[in-house]
Amino acid sequence: LKEAITAYTGLSPATFFTVLAVSLAFYYVVSGLFGSSSGPTHHQERSVEVEPLPPPVQVGEITEEELKQYDGSDPKKPLLMAIKGQIYDVTQSRMFYGPGGPYALFAGKDASRALAKMSFEEQDLTSDISGLGPFELEALQDWEYKFMGKYTKVGTVKKEVLVTDGSSTAEATEAAEATNREAPNAGDNAPSEKPVGEPVETAKTDDAEKKHE
């Protein structure tokens, strides 16, 4: 080995091993300095990324107008979305449904029709699924199964009952009561059947008296 070191390096064995030891020591010193400076920062970044999310909060039955408050614009509030009247907490997917995300326009709404049609049009951001075809309804069902398996249900959307002419139920009730109050007055003004029958009975009585005479 000594002869090989001398032949290939031109150094004596003692000099060769000294140079090798110094090189290794220099390497460990330099790598330790750079490694210690970058290590803690990397761990701190990872600790921020895995910060746990707050547990889902049950909101109960709310209106569509109240649901709009949970569209992600307020970071202190959960991020909610509804499908077929069922509200789910999608806070864990804020990168998709939060502000700036590809599906941000669905947040804070019941966008069942838009999901069924895979549409991003404003007129489709509604819970009305009437007139959809079988393939669209099947697609909506797939979305619902996905949300049921991945997210927590936290409430339902309260439906507002309207009559066909667009007025409220209370207005329809008041109109019906007003009609019932006017009905007796209309009956009082109708012609009586009794005066019509009296002349006939009088004529029959006169004929009977003449025959008797």
Automatic annotation (TrEMBL):
<keyword id="KW-0446">Lipid-binding</keyword>
<feature type="transmembrane region" description="Helical">
    <location>
        <begin position="16"/>
        <end position="36"/>
    </location>
</feature>
<dbReference type="InterPro" id="IPR036400">
    <property type="entry name" value="Cyt_B5-like_heme/steroid_sf"/>
</dbReference>
<comment type="similarity">
    <text>Belongs to the cytochrome b5 family. MAPR subfamily.</text>
</comment>
<feature type="compositionally biased region" description="Basic and acidic residues">
    <location>
        <begin position="201"/>
        <end position="213"/>
    </location>
</feature>
<dbReference type="Pfam" id="PF00173">
    <property type="entry name" value="Cyt-b5"/>
</dbReference>
<keyword id="KW-0754">Steroid-binding</keyword>
<protein>
    <recommendedName>
        <fullName>Cytochrome b5 heme-binding domain-containing protein</fullName>
    </recommendedName>
</protein>
<dbReference type="GO" id="GO:0005496">
    <property type="term" value="F:steroid binding"/>
</dbReference>
<dbReference type="GO" id="GO:0005886">
    <property type="term" value="C:plasma membrane"/>
</dbReference>
<keyword id="KW-0472">Membrane</keyword>
<dbReference type="InterPro" id="IPR050577">
    <property type="entry name" value="MAPR/NEUFC/NENF-like"/>
</dbReference>
<keyword id="KW-1003">Cell membrane</keyword>
<dbReference type="InterPro" id="IPR001199">
    <property type="entry name" value="Cyt_B5-like_heme/steroid-bd"/>
</dbReference>
<feature type="region of interest" description="Disordered">
    <location>
        <begin position="165"/>
        <end position="213"/>
    </location>
</feature>
<keyword id="KW-1133">Transmembrane helix</keyword>
<feature type="compositionally biased region" description="Low complexity">
    <location>
        <begin position="169"/>
        <end position="178"/>
    </location>
</feature>
<feature type="domain" description="Cytochrome b5 heme-binding">
    <location>
        <begin position="62"/>
        <end position="158"/>
    </location>
</feature>
<keyword id="KW-0812">Transmembrane</keyword>
<dbReference type="GO" id="GO:0005783">
    <property type="term" value="C:endoplasmic reticulum"/>
</dbReference>
